[in-house]
Specification:
- By secondary structure, the chain is mostly helical.
- It has a single domain, classed as Farnesyl Diphosphate Synthase.
- 74% of the residues lie in helices and 1% in strands.
- It is built from 16 helices and two strands.
- The protein has a two-stranded antiparallel sheet.
- Helix 3 runs antiparallel to helix 4 and helix 9 packs antiparallel against helix 15.
- The relative contact order is 0.11.
Length: 324
């Protein structure tokens, strides 16, 4: 087995090799830009790691890993347009640096490119990867629609919110791991277990992201801190606070999520105070721990050597301690 650093370096080298100059420049330059902004490379690393865990060389999974990363970044380009987000990983978003139409078209090209990468596998693996990818991509779109719907609803429940982040974020983490298992021709039971490990870890990961969006260090987080509050997104923090606050403060919180002041600083600070006072901040930390433990419980059932399970466990624990 390799280290996370080694998987990351190998993937970055492959990404650099595959990201070539093409015409028209206004279609492909934004793709190079978003793929070059960095990020944790969480999903492709999981694909490479999974292939090796199940007995295949991680190099055989490089195209599947690249497909996952290209798709993930495609979704970010389009999400940023829908959210009117100014920053991504501390830099201008694609639609700000270029324009909205360019962001839409370059994103579309990325989605097609992701599918093309599966063509490098033999027919049986291609079919299984494409089926998993199509299912996952559609679920990600469903999650994004739920996310947008929640912005204008006053009756969003915690189960609904958890379903949304399962689709929008967690299924892609699960699929990233399962793709490595598919490339390695692992058993059906192993493929399902590794998927469930990733899906539960993905929910914990998104909850951690929600927490960092409100309380992270802007220099380290790489996105606009308080962005979810500014965009009136009813995250886990909001839903818990709304449920637990006294009625007068709960109504104030509701009101704050109906306004979009030109300077949102005071709004963000007031909402964060509500999160702290209501206990929502501790509640989300407890939920992160719960889903991390669920992931590790599935991991215990996985039919691989203990040292390989330990690598996945260490990776999961490092994600939960992250500050970015």
């Amino acid at each position: 087995m390799h280290s996370i650093k080694e998987y990351t370096q190998e993937f970055l080298g492959y990404l650099d090799k595959k990201t070539v100059n093409r015409e028209p420049a206004n279609l492909y330059e934004p793709i190079k830009y978003i793929l070059g902004l960095g990020g944790k490379r969480l999903r492709p690393v999981l694909t490479l790691m999974s292939a090796e865990i199940f007995g295949e060389s991680h190099t055989k999974a490089l195209d599947a890993a690249l497909a996952v990363e290209v798709f993930h970044n495609f979704s970010l380009v389009h999400d940023d347009i829908m959210d009117d987000a100014p920053l991504r990983r501390g830099k201008e978003t694609v639609h700000v640096k270029w324009d909205i139409n360019t962001g839409i078209l370059s994103g579309d090209a990325m989605l097609i490119t992701a599918y093309q990468l599966f063509e490098n596998y033999d027919p049986a693996i291609f079919r299984e990867l494409a089926q998993l990818f199509s299912k996952t991509a559609l679920e990600v779109c469903e999650g994004q629609q739920y996310d947008m719907d929640f912005e204008s609803r006053e009756d969003v429940t915690l189960p609904e919110y958890l379903k949304m982040i399962n689709y929008k974020t967690a299924v892609l983490v699960g699929a990233s791991l399962k793709m490595g298992a598919v490339v390695a021709r692992a058993s059906s039971a192993c493929k399902e277990n590794i998927y469930e490990f990733g899906r539960n870890l993905g929910i914990a990961f998104q909850l951690q992201d929600d927490y960092l969006d409100a309380f992270g260090d802007p220099e380290k987080f790489g996105k606009q801190v308080g962005g979810d509050i500014i965009e009136n997104k009813k995250t886990f923090l909001y839903l818990v606070a709304h449920e637990r606050l006294p009625q007068s403060e709960s109504l104030q919180l509701e009101h704050l999520f109906t306004i979009s002041p030109s300077d949102p600083t005071q709004k963000v600070e007031t909402v964060k105070q509500h999160y702290e006072i209501s206990g929502a901040t501790q509640a989300i930390k407890d939920e992160i721990k719960k889903y991390t433990e669920k992931a590790f419980a599935v991991l215990n059932e996985l039919d691989v050597e203990e040292e390989k399970k330990a690598l996945l466990r260490d990776f999961g624990e490092s994600l939960m301690k992250r500050k970015v």
